[in-house]
Specification:
By secondary structure, this protein is an alpha+beta fold. The protein folds into three domains: 247 residues, Alpha-Beta Complex (3-hydroxy-3-methylglutaryl-coenzyme A Reductase, Chain A, domain 2), CATH 3.90.770; 104 residues, 2-Layer Sandwich (Alpha-Beta Plaits); 47 residues, Helicase, Ruva Protein, domain 3 (Orthogonal Bundle). The strands form four sheets. A four-stranded antiparallel β-sheet has the order 5-10-12-11. Strand 2 and strand 3 form a beta hairpin. Helix 3 packs across helix 15, helix 7 crosses helix 9 and helix 17 crosses helix 19. The chain starts with a helix and ends with a helix. 40% of the residues are buried. The N terminus is likely disordered. It binds nicotinamide-adenine-dinucleotide. The site of nicotinamide-adenine-dinucleotide has 24 residues, from helix 8, helix 9 and helix 14.
């Protein structure tokens, strides 16, 4: 272990090809996976043409590996697909701090998704509700017919609820919730097919008219939860004591807890960790985003998805709970070659384990942002990387990129106009 950690510590000092070689050895990946992960042989335009409409090509993003993540006792390299600098470094740094207490501990609830059926044109809403609930078992059996495989795997329709929406711009109506255990799928197709199947029966039983039949992205039955403890002494750096940093982080979190303006940015910081892994595994990040923010507002006021507090030893304890509708089966996870390779890279083959890893990365990313904000400020660490992007945007190439970035940071003028002027001077 000590040797492996030593090995990992230098990951960011390695060249890109050395990093690939190290991961190949560590996770026993094939040459084919390596070609996909390096980007040499990823999603082809021909494959892409089968995925969406009117395809003309593909669009690339950087993929980096966050290190030091130990989730439920297992060390896992984390692939992150993202355009923003500092995210991979921030996640890795916080994951390293978490090793003092064994890393992240995560679990998930059952992979139950909700499908909604809107029933209109009813006078006797309460009676219609009772009639539906009375035949719940037969409705569940009907819905199960569309996906025998899912049922065989232990999933399928599990419950049915009927909600009465008493106030809406078109007056009152009923909503049927079909609860389906989708196992290792994200579940949108599975759910949508099942609720469409119920249309006829629901109209027959209630005498109403079914309009919408669609998945809800507020997947509040499919929660992923992570917790982490950071030793107070591990939080100290530069002139900051561990206690200063700990209390600063708790105060920063309290701000997000109490104020939606802050909470939006706080949760965005969490999603900085979540989305890159969701994307790297071919999952639907809009669905995950929608679920996260709706869940953050579930009590009527938008608030923080995470909590930060002091434990009995004076150490910093964090938790994150959010819906995470991600799959390892179906959708783009099966079609995109990099999504498959990334699951092998992480050694993951179930949706629940994937969600446990992703929620842990979200918690780490949250900590990275709060720690920076509550101490030196976000810009100091960010500026060097930002300066590199500005340098590239101004036209710097090769070694010039770092030279120009350093100069911009020195001058405290990280602007593209200044970068262009310096480049011009150098070229003359
Ligand atoms: P899917 O329909 O492609 O695959 C799920 C099916 O695979 C199951 O129904 C089952 O028959 C089979 N299967 C085999 N092994 C399984 C296992 N171990 N666990 C579970 N199922 C197994 O995929 P999906 O997840 O239902 O649909 C995902 C796609 O739907 C995504 O691409 C998403 O973008 C899209 N989508 C999203 C929304 C939304 O979020 N509102 C709406 C529509 C579509």
């Amino acid at each position: 272990m000590a040797e492996k950690e030593h090995h990992n510590k230098k990951f960011y000092h390695l060249t890109r090809l050395e990093r690939l070689a190290q991961l190949k050895a560590e996770m026993h990946l094939s040459e084919a996976d390596m070609a996909v992960l390096s980007g040499e042989k990823s999603l082809s335009p021909v494959e892409a043409d089968h995925m969406i409409e009117n395809v003309i090509g593909t669009f690339s993003l950087p993929m980096g590996i966050a290190r030091y993540f130990r989730v439920n006792g297992r060390e896992i390299p984390i692939p992150m697909v993202v355009e923003e600098p500092s995210i991979v470094a921030g996640a890795s740094f916080m994951a390293r701090l978490s090793l003092g207490t064994g890393g992240f501990f995560a679990h998930t609830t059952a992979p139950e998704m909700i499908g909604q059926v809107q029933v209109l044109d009813l006078e006797d809403l309460s009676s219609a509700r009772m009639k539906l609930l009375a035949v719940k078992e037969s409705l569940l059996a009907e819905a199960a017919k569309v996906d025998p495989l899912l049922k065989e795997l232990g999933g399928g329709p599990k419950d049915l609820e009927v909600r009465l929406i008493s106030e809406s711009p078109i007056g009152p109506f009923l909503v049927v919730h079909l609860i389906v255990d989708v196992r290792d799928a994200m579940g949108a197709n599975a759910i949508n097919t099942a609720v469409e199947r119920l249309t006829h029966r629901v109209e027959e039983i209630t005498g109403g008219r079914v309009l919408l039949r669609i998945l809800s992205n507020l997947a509040d039955r499919r929660l992923a939860r992570a917790r982490v403890t950071i030793l107070k002494n591990d939080l100290a750096f530069d002139g900051f004591t561990g206690k200063d940093v700990r209390d600063g982080i708790i105060a920063a979190w309290a701000f997000a807890r109490a104020d939606p303006y802050r909470a939006a940015t706080h949760n965005k910081g969490i999603m900085n960790g979540i989305d890159p892994v969701v994307i790297a595994t071919g999952n639907d990040w809009r669905a995950v985003e929608a679920g996260a923010h709706a869940y953050a507002a579930r009590n009527g006021r938008y608030t923080s998805l995470s909590t930060w507090e002091k434990d009995a030893n004076g150490d910093l304890a964090g938790t994150l709970e959010m819906p995470l509708a991600v799959g390892t089966i179906g959708g783009a996870t099966r079609v995109h070659p990099a999504a498959q390779a990334n699951l092998r890279l992480m050694g993951i083959d179930s949706a629940s384990e994937l969600a446990q890893v992703i929620v842990s990365v979200g918690l780490a990313q949250n900590l990275a942002a709060l720690r920076a904000l509550a101490t030196e400020g976000i810009q100091r660490g960010h500026m060097g990387l930002h300066a590199r992007q500005v340098a590239i945007a101004a036209g710097a190439k090769g070694d010039q990129i770092n030279q120009l970035a350093e100069k911009l940071v020195q001058e405290k003028a990280i602007r593209i106009d200044r970068a262009s002027v310096i480049l011009k001077e150098w070229r003359n």
